[in-house]
């Protein structure tokens, strides 16, 4: 369980710490304005490029070894990305590659070590991811104003190194894992994952919920600033959004794990997105309205993510199916997601208004719901 908690800690912290200090990074490194959205988009492209290869690497080198290498890559990215524009770009690529592996392997860790507690253990790493990403988003701007964003970024190196040490210690436990769990690693999907329509439904759901999350994560602070709030207040409200996600990180995997059909949870998630995004269309500078929006967006984004994560396990019959569908859905899904932050940046630079962009995001939430309902009609990915 300790390993799951630490993996969850590393899955988003290095990303959510960035948006509140985008202006600080721009001024320090003399970055062009168009590049700012890329700091969120580049990791998503890394997720797309790396995810399809994770299963092959796992089969060849083993789960723990690949996990440990990914954590070292993540630590290197955290350390070097503060020195120059070029190293910021390289470090962001390394961070994206490291997190891509964690994204795919997190459900595999659950299936390997806790095959009979999928809902509860998915909740464990999701809850950890949510809490620590909330803390990093909320304190990013205030801490950066005290110690500088460069020092703040480099402190993160400690976490993947610690997680890597715990992963290596866990390797001995893996050798003694129950035979029922180990047996699943040798099973293979019954058919080509790319030819399963259910895999494409999963990809659509995963991709759009990711697009919504990363677009909101990147630009919500700027939207709130344009509503008249200060940078520090906007940073804290981004932290509120992440904290609001905490109950969903605990509840959604457990509830979903005890249900045969997930349609009610998917309908609830779609409604939460519509309420949260719709409230951002209301003009004004009220902190109360900002809190309301962030709470509902926190509920929505984390419900969508957790539904995606637990479906990888619930609709698979063995570890290989889990990793195969997870790799495909996260590869193509994050390619879809990468469009969001940069497209929002381009649209805003043209119109200097968030209204149309928020409307498009609401349409995407309805499309996400449609993919989810189609997927819910099938018991397994490979039928």
Automatic annotation (TrEMBL):
Residue span(s) of domain Major facilitator superfamily (MFS) profile: 1-380
SUPFAM superfamilies tied to this protein: MFS general substrate transporter
One Pfam match: MFS_1
Keywords from the named record: Membrane, Transmembrane, Transmembrane helix, Transport
Localization of this protein: Cell membrane
InterPro entries attached to this UniProt entry: MFS, MFS_Cyanate_Porter, MFS_dom, MFS_trans_sf
Membrane topology term: Multi-pass membrane protein
TM annotation in the entry: 32-50, 62-81, 87-106, 118-141, 147-169, 204-224, 236-256, 263-282, 288-312, 324-348, 354-375
Domain of life: Bacteria
Protein name from the UniProt record: MFS transporter
Annotated source species: Agrilactobacillus yilanensis
């Amino acid at each position: 369980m300790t390993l799951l908690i630490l993996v969850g800690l590393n899955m988003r912290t290095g990303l959510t710490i960035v948006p509140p200090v985008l202006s600080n990074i721009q001024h320090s490194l003399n970055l062009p304005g168009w590049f700012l959205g890329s700091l969120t988009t580049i990791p998503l492209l890394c997720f797309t490029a790396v995810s399809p290869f994770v299963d092959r690497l796992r089969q060849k080198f083993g789960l723990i070894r690949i996990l440990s290498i990914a954590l070292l890559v993540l630590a290197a990215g955290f350390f070097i990305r503060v020195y120059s524009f070029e190293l910021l770009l390289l470090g962001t690529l390394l961070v994206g590659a490291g997190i891509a592996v964690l994204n795919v392997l997190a459900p595999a860790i659950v299936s390997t070590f806790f095959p009979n507690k999928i809902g509860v253990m998915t909740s464990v790493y999701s809850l950890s991811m949510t809490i620590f990403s909330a803390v990093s988003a909320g304190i990013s701007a205030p801490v950066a104003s005290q110690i500088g964003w460069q020092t703040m970024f480099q402190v993160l190196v400690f976490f993947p190194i610690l997680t890597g040490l715990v992963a290596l210690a866990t390797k001995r436990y893996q050798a003694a894992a129950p035979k029922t769990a180990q047996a699943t690693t040798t099973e293979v999907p019954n058919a080509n994952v790319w030819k399963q329509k259910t895999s494409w439904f999963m990809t659509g759901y995963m991709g759009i919920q990711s697009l919504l999350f990363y677009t909101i994560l990147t630009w919500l602070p700027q939207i709130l600033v344009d509503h008249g709030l200060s940078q520090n207040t906007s940073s804290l409200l981004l932290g509120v959004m992440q904290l609001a996600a905490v109950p969903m990180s605990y509840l959604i995997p457990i509830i979903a794990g005890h249900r045969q059909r997930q349609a009610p949870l998917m309908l609830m998630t779609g409604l939460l997105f519509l309420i949260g995004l719709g409230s951002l269309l209301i003009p004004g500078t009220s902190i109360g309205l900002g809190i309301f929006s962030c709470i509902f967006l926190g509920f929505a984004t984390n419900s969508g993510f957790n539904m995606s994560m637990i479906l990888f396990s619930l609709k698979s019959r063995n570890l290989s199916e889990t990793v195969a569908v997870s790799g495909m859905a996260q590869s193509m899904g994050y390619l879809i997601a990468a469009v969001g932050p940069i497209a929002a940046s381009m649209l805003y630079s043209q119109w200097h208004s968030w209204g149309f962009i928020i409307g498009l995001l609401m349409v995407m939430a309805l499309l996400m719901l449609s993919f989810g309902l189609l997927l819910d009609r099938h018991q397994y990915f490979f039928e």
